[in-house]
Design goal:
Elements (H helix, E strand, L loop, with lengths): L3 E4 L6 E4 L3 H11 L8 H16 L5 E9 L2 E10 L4 E2 L2 E2 L2 E7 L2 H17 L4 E4 L1 E2 L2 H4 E2 L1 E4 L18 H7 L3 E10 L15 E4 L3 H6 L1 H11 L10 H15 L12 H4 L2 H9 L9 E6 L5 E9 L1 H5 L6 E9 L8 H14 L5 E8 L3 H7 L4 E12 L5
Parallel strand pairs: 16-17
Antiparallel strand pairs: 1-2, 2-3, 3-4, 4-7, 5-6, 8-18, 9-10, 11-18, 12-17, 12-18, 13-14, 14-15, 15-16
Helix pairs in contact: 1-2
């Protein structure tokens, strides 16, 4: 693979564009901070596999830069222009996996990203968006470093000054995201299901068959308003791959519906309609009883880090929640939440984290997760790029 080297005369950092997978792996193993060192080899392997797939198609606009000073690696960053990623409904170039030991390293790395963005006639750069997102997540972590590592949630070094460096370089905090312990208790609003709505848990193959309905639901629920909305079939495939990895390790701990739910008709209907040995308990789907149309879903990620460490799966990342707008106010989200809690607990899940909840408006958190307790905080930054003469 050809290496492209550039040097900025005023800086002491040398930045090299790297397309050789062995070099990327070496840089990550040497410099990437992972709170649980046991997970580092597997996380690095997943990141390298992602870039391998991207580099295999010359149409993909993805770059990986490594910075060094006196032959010592001091940082790295990726830069990507992908129309599938949207911010506030619009495609936007992104950077990710930014690591920098000092301001000058950060300056040199971001200068290369900005150069790439300008060459593609784009005017804004946003990040960090760490691909693959089921590993890296989004944002720079500023709080909650004591919380357990969760796949799909950005992790970071509490001693890192990367956010300060980016602000020094003209990047502005644009979006704040909170992660919340969300399933502390049952929500009263979703105790009794609306008669028009039925909640189902499905086998993996049946979830895959719903892809068009899920994508349609996402297009009206997420893309137009929120920044950094999850989306695209690639994201859907990430969910399906995570489910395929984990369902074979899950075991049912009870065969009867818990007594506290036995007298609630909607909950009992969901329980009795499930084949507990075949369903994916990490995804709940709401359907209109009369039309069988998908009208809402909560799709969670199992914490793959537990699986990779050989531990029992007990953590769930409540990643994506969507309700069709015509059904707002009917308790669909609350019902999916409540039914999802009792059924997933049957498989041993006992820690649920509502992740990357857009927190620029504190009312959003109180509305979406009124009983949630903040666990961690992340920030996504962006910069509008001026045209260079």
């Amino acid at each position: 693979m050809e290496l492209v080297s550039t040097r900025t005369e005023k800086l002491s950092s040398e930045v090299i564009e790297v397309r050789n997978l062995s070099q990327i792996k070496s840089a990550l193993l040497e410099t990437l901070f992972v709170p649980d060192e046991r997970l580092k080899p597997k996380i690095v392997s997943e990141i390298v596999s992602y870039f391998e797939s991207k580099f295999s198609n010359p149409e993909n606009k993805v770059k990986f830069f490594v910075a060094s000073q006196n032959k010592r690696i001091t940082g790295f960053v990726s830069c990507q222009i992908d129309d599938e990623y949207k911010s506030y409904g619009m495609p936007c170039p992104t950077f990710g996996w930014l690591s920098a030991t000092d301001l000058e390293t950060c300056r040199a790395l971001m200068a290369e990203c900005e150069k790439s963005v300008r060459e593609n006639k784009k005017k804004k750069l946003r990040g960090p968006i760490n691909y693959p997102k089921f590993i890296g997540g989004i944002g720079i972590q500023t709080e909650g470093f004591e919380a357990p590592m969760m796949s799909g949630i950005a992790f970071g070094d509490p001693k890192s000054k990367v956010l300060e460096y980016l602000q020094e370089l003209g990047y502005k905090k644009d979006s704040k995201y909170s992660c919340l312990d969300t399933f502390l208790k049952r929500w009263a609003k979703g105790k009794d299901l609306d008669e028009e709505i039925v909640v189902k848990f499905l086998p993996l193959d049946e979830i895959k068959d719903l892809i068009d309905q899920i994508m349609s639901l996402a297009s009206q629920s997420l893309y137009a308003v929120l920044a950094d909305a999850p989306g695209g079939r690639t994201r859907f495939d990430e969910f399906m791959n995570a489910y395929a990895q984990t369902i074979k390790f899950l075991k049912v701990s009870r065969e009867e519906i818990p007594q506290e739910y036995a007298d609630i008709s909607g909950f009992r209907e969901t329980w009795e309609s499930c084949d507990l040995k075949k369903i994916v308990p990490m995804a709940a789907f709401g359907f209109d009883r009369n039309t069988n149309e998908l009208i809402g879903t909560i799709m969670c990620q199992p914490n793959l880090y537990q699986l990779w460490n050989g531990e029992k799966l007990t953590h769930m990342n409540v990643d994506t929640a969507m309700v069709k707008k015509e059904y707002a106010g009917k308790g669909v989200f609350s019902a999916l939440h409540n039914v999802g809690k009792f059924l997933s607990s049957t498989f041993g899940f006992d820690y649920y984290e509502g992740t990357t909840v857009w927190a620029n408006n504190d009312r959003a958190i109180k509305t979406i997760f009124p009983h949630g307790v903040p666990v961690r905080t992340h920030y996504v930054v962006q910069k509008r790029l001026l045209r260079k003469n």
